[in-house]
Write a structure and sequence with these properties.
single chain; about 260 residues; mainly alpha; 10 helices; about 65% helix; about 0% strand
């Protein structure tokens, strides 16, 4: 007997139904990003990946407080900020000697998830604006999914490496910025203190940055319902990346 449904040659679950579990997506985004983003486009969820990033962000903050004493941590934080790096020793000592409670000590760990969420949301909003202006058919939900799945996978590897190196390195040599503990860019070629602008530009030539640009380009092309090609998506991502690089260098030129 013939069945009531016509034989179209399409699997029963249809071409537009996601078939990958979260773990399959997580593994696939590293080894088969195009296929993985096609699956994500059908169901743009990101909460589980966001939780992993938050846990690692909290781990970085905890590691800093565990391997570095309060005074060293404060001095490195002040030296990293262009607005405070030129403070006198007396001013620095006054800040360092102030009593600090448990909340102050672990505030970075507590607020890490909020910082991650705000960072992703703002970045997704900027991408959405740029790609809508470029004629893409994309919603904020999909923009946020593309942003999280494009930025998180390289960030996970970078954060894990940073935590490992923090435990290996001498506390005096640890950088406050997690990325600074992994030699993945050309910023190491010059002194940030002596040449802040050049250091900022060279540090942007980074393996993890290029990996992120690659994933974001594939991700936005897949989640834009074919209104963006990978090349067109890469153009938008690169424009924003260049603006970020130049803005960061300009900041250090003014305050470095």
């Amino acid at each position: 007997m013939e069945s009531g449904a016509p034989n179209t040659g399409i699997p029963a679950n249809g071409p537009d139904v996601p078939t990958m579990s979260f773990m399959q997506r997580l593994i696939g985004v590293y080894f088969e990003p195009r296929k993985t983003f096609q699956d994500i486009s059908q169901k743009p969820t990101w909460i589980a990946l966001f939780i992993i990033v938050c846990v690692l962000a909290m781990g970085v903050n905890y590691t800093l407080t565990a391997v570095m004493d309060h005074e060293t941590l404060m001095r490195k934080s002040l030296a990293m900020n262009p607005m405070t790096r030129n403070m006198s020793e007396e001013q620095i000592q006054q800040l360092v000697s102030q009593p600090r409670g448990a909340f102050s000590r672990y505030s970075g760990l507590i607020f890490a998830p909020l910082g991650v969420l705000v960072s992703y949301a703002v970045t997704a909003g900027v991408f959405l604006l740029v790609f809508v202006l470029m004629g893409a058919a994309i919603t904020f939900k999909k923009s946020l999914a593309a942003t999280v799945w494009g930025m998180a996978p390289p960030g996970i590897i970078l954060t894990i490496l940073s935590i490992v190196f923090m435990f290996i390195k001498d506390p005096a040599d640890i950088e406050i910025s997690p990325a600074g503990n992994v030699a993945s860019n050309l910023g190491m070629l010059v002194s940030e203190k002596e040449h802040p602008v050049i250091s900022s530009l060279l540090s942007s030539i980074d393996v993890f940055s290029f990996w992120t640009i690659f994933l974001l380009s594939i991700g936005f092309a897949a989640l834009s319902d074919r209104s963006l090609t990978v090349k067109k998506a890469a153009t938008g991502v690169l424009i924003l990346w260049l603006l970020w690089v130049l803005g960061k260098a300009g900041y250090f030129a003014l305050f470095g």
